[in-house]
Design a protein that fits this description.
The structure holds 2 protein chains of 2 kinds. By secondary structure, chain A is mostly helical. Chain A is built from 11 helices and no strands. Classes of the chains: A mainly alpha, B mainly alpha.
């Protein structure tokens, strides 16, 4: 390790500002990138499938492969995290498996099976239609967009699908209201109380 | 307890658990951290011998304590040594040492380097905000405090106040509202 941390850029240079904004390391950009990719791959695959053109079909097949890899990875990750939580969290293990947290992994499984059989339509219904259900409670506007997207896909209305996909991508990348985030955070003492309750329940 | 900076409670909890051999092995480290939080810097220095006997490394805390007590040369020497042997928290400690010596640009560089790590990120972001305020770059300081607020699991009123202060300095209209939330979350 060198005695000096970095090249002597002024604190106000663009690079230093960028570094400070994005968690000091480009690795922190990865979750955002993955989130957008997880949306864009099925979205483009859906559009390619709807166009039914030889060139688009090839792109669709390539994207179907990526989508399948993503779904299987999501499913494996989900199964592993469920196993870990049941194995190591007493609070989680003592309760029956809740339906809502498990639903995304069921969707991954259904999507993977559909894609393996070449049924992109069924994969779309699972990824955008079924996945909208848990969002209806907390993220209603995104859920409604997903349902509208599924409807437009069922009606084969390609331009409606493209517009809805663009809207959905915009919504996904919209920054939440900072003041609202702060308001929803517990105060210090409330946080301590909740942590103590969790410890007492055996989940901390 | 340490995360929420309830230092008195943390001290009681540590003493309550000191029967455990696992806790005993790192007790000096925890004590040093708690005493630093309580601003009992002399007490941190007094732990040096105990830590040595228990084979527990508290050099990072010693560097910060020396720096806060104004022993800049000693603090700098210890902090550089901890960086050389790659102790956890060494970079942020060196940042603190430079900060206390009034070398804010140098402090900021080390904080930026420390913030690349996953652990204790909120503390580092906060330190960066404080340093940028000293430099007079309130825009950047506000950005650091905003990030610190986001990564802290609870609304830390001190951060909200500092953030509001930065916003006020740059003429942002949300300053009063943030101040109000800080007051509510106290």
């Amino acid at each position: 390790m060198s005695a000096k941390p970095d090249r002597p850029f002024d604190h106000n240079t663009l690079w230093r500002k960028f570094r400070r904004r994005y968690w000091m390391h480009p690795i922190w950009l990865l979750p955002w990138l993955l989130e957008d990719l997880a949306f864009l791959i099925p979205a483009l695959c859906m559009v390619a499938w709807m166009l039914r053109d030889a060139g688009w079909q090839r792109l669709g097949d390539f994207l179907r492969g990526l989508w399948l890899i993503g779904s299987v990875a999501g499913l494996l990750f989900g199964l592993l995290s469920l196993w870990m939580r049941r194995r190591y969290s007493r609070r989680f293990a003592s309760r029956p498996l809740p339906a809502m947290p498990v639903l995304p992994y069921v969707i991954y499984a259904l999507t993977a099976i559909s894609l393996m059989q070449g049924r992109i339509d069924l994969a779309v219904y699972a990824t955008f239609g079924l996945a909208a259900l848990p969002k209806l409670q907390k993220n209603r506007s995104t859920a409604l967009l997903d349902l509208a997207l599924t409807g437009a896909f069922a009606l084969n209305a390609i331009w409606a699908v493209v517009v809805l996909l663009a809207l959905r991508l915009f919504k996904q990348n919209q920054q939440p209201d900072f003041l609202e985030i702060i308001r929803q955070k517990p105060g210090r003492m409330e946080f301590v109380r909740e942590a103590r309750e969790q410890c007492a329940a055996g989940g901390g | 307890m340490c995360q929420t900076e309830l230092w008195e409670d943390a001290l009681i909890e540590l003493k309550r658990q000191s029967y455990s051999p696992l806790v005993k092995r790192v007790q000096a480290q925890w004590l040093a951290r708690i005493y630093l939080g309580m601003k009992r810097y002399e007490a941190v220095l007094e732990l040096e011998e105990q830590a040595r006997q228990e084979g527990c490394d508290i050099q990072v805390f010693l560097a910060i304590a020396h720096a806060r007590l104004g022993h800049h040369t000693t603090a700098l020497w210890i902090a550089k040594e901890t960086v050389r042997v790659r102790r956890h928290g060494a970079e942020v400690a060196l940042g603190h040492v430079y900060y206390e010596a009034g070398e804010y640009e140098e402090a900021l560089r080390w904080y930026e380097r420390a913030a690349q790590h996953l652990l204790d990120r909120a503390d580092v972001l906060r330190a960066m905000g404080k340093t940028l305020m000293r430099i007079g770059d309130y825009h950047e300081a506000a950005s650091m405090y905003a990030q610190a607020i986001l990564v802290t699991p609870f609304a830390r009123s001190e951060d909200l106040r500092q953030f509001a202060e930065c916003l006020r300095r740059i003429g942002d209209k949300h300053a009063a509202e943030i101040e109000q939330i800080a007051h509510e979350k106290e």
